[in-house]
Amino acid sequence: MASSIEPDRFYGREVEFPPRLLASHIDTAEREVRTLLAGMRSTRWPKIDPSIHYDIVRTGSSYEGLKVNGDMELDIMIVLSHPEFNFFPISDPSTPCGFHKIKAERRHVQSQAARWLSGTVCCLFEVCFTSNGYLMSSQIYEWFQSLAKRALTVIESKYDVTLAGKFPVRMVIKVRTDFEICVDLVPAIKIEGDLYAVAKPLKTSPDPDLWRLSFSVFEKNILSWLPSPSCHLKALKILKYLREHDTRLEETSQFASGLCSYHLKTASLHLLARPAQPPDTQEGLHERLHQLMDFLVECMQRRELNHFFMGNQSSLARDAQVPSSVTHGECRLNLFGGKFVNESTLSQARERLVRIKRSLPAIIQQHYDPGAYSCNIL
User: What start-end ranges are recorded for coiled-coil regions in this protein (predicted)?
Assistant: First the structure.
């Protein structure tokens, strides 16, 4: 029987991404991103195209202290604006929970004659990027991708840099022949404080006007309050690692393919909001890891995992300064709802997680030594 300290050894040997190496990769990636953005600014059409802010917004696991061993990936939001327009979020009952429309309004009201005399650049912006006065996320993304591709032909880099994907635009930096850094570049509009709307389409809706709310900065801030390393962060990273690598042990694992890291992070935030927390010890790590697995199994059994911020008035959300319009709103988003995960997938993922929890020492040992156990016993 494995002792309670085994998860801690597993974390140090297999799970943790070496901090110095991570910092070096982040530095390399950010230099390349800034070079690309400079090229995009130089090739955009002034006054017609949106402006690209110089400050980038760092999000995702590599900046949250949640990066685990594996592929090197970063997420960066690129904030857009326009000198002639203000952008305002609009929500109505027909808008899906977690999404807004962005109204584009002129900063200065002009008569039709004055607008004609001043040229058509503002009109061109409206024609290219808006529909019925709303900023179209689909058009913004197509423009962003096209501009990035043009910029890539004029910038210089010592690395082989390419672009892949469409939603989001993925910048691939080949550092060595056997190693690359991938950076997801996401166009964003600043809403309020650290709340942004990102141009990520809703797959189940054909509406090209929808913008998804991003709570990434709030999540990063909350996680930064935890001592490093803490059993809370370690437990989440261990479970992330087990999910990401579970197909090594079970090829058809629905825990790996049916759930995503955001499900795990959301569950972890809900546990963090509870008053009693395990101590930051080896035994505390063991307790937190089992709490996290038990909570996820319970949520999958109920088919309910609510978004941590929307409609949640917890003190943790307030301390993070999430706008009250979000936390006090009636909108609640169930991440385990049928729109996101079907019932069969959720059931199979739950069964797999139950088996992982029951056989955790064997699972950990098998990641140490893949030939140590047969998958059939798990």
Answer: none
